[in-house]
Amino acid sequence: MARNEEKAQSLLNRWTSMKQDFADTFKNRRPYLASQCDNLKDAERWRRQIIREISKKVADIQNAGSSEHVIRDLNDEINKRIREKRHWERRIVQLGGPDYARTQPQAYDADGSAVRGVGGYKYFGAAKDLPGVRELFQKEEHEPRKRTRQDMYKHIEPDYYGFRDDEDEQQLKDEEEAEHRLKQRAMDGWNAAEAKRKAQVAELGVPTD
């Protein structure tokens, strides 16, 4: 009887241990969605974990001797982790934590060069030398940058809008003289037309006032 009780107790202990291990596994597993986390401390921990994963993969992708397939997969994983990090940073703000997106510096590669990308997708390490990627960056360097509205307005001074016209005395004098000439020309034209009209009326023998 004692033997059976010992076996039962042993099985119960093993089951309890397995149950605890199973619970710990899920407890220490990062949630699939950041919105599933309601604890700021845990959200900070998951963000740090993602940063460590990104750092490791960035170090791994520096090996130019890896196959193209491996490099592309690593680069995809890094971009995926970066997007995931942003989700957690937004969640941290929602939970009352700091806004890391505002304070984090520009991303740099392991060799110290600024990370370049296209359309939000970044290329790290050996991925920058993959077929098609280097040509893409070279094309961007040679293509002239289109002027933006900000560029067009950057060098426009107040004179363009006439804001300082009143400050130019010579210009004011020239404008007054031009206005006087126009008025005089209009008066001369009117007087000539009036004289011609009166002459025509006189020829017809019509009395004028």
Automatic annotation (TrEMBL):
Keywords attached to this entry: Nucleus
Record-linked InterPro entries: Helix_hairpin_bin_sf, Isy1, Isy1_sf
Ranges for region Disordered: 139-209
Annotated localization: Nucleus
Keyword Manganese: no
Biased composition (Basic and acidic residues): 139-181
Top-level lineage group: Eukaryota
Claim: Nucleus is one of the keywords in the record: yes
Gene Ontology biological-process entries: generation of catalytic spliceosome for second transesterification step
GO CC annotation terms, alphabetical: nucleus
PANTHER family for the chain: PRE-MRNA-SPLICING FACTOR ISY1
Membership in a protein family: Belongs to the ISY1 family.
Name the record gives this protein: Pre-mRNA-splicing factor ISY1
Naturally occurring in which organism (per UniProt): Phytophthora rubi
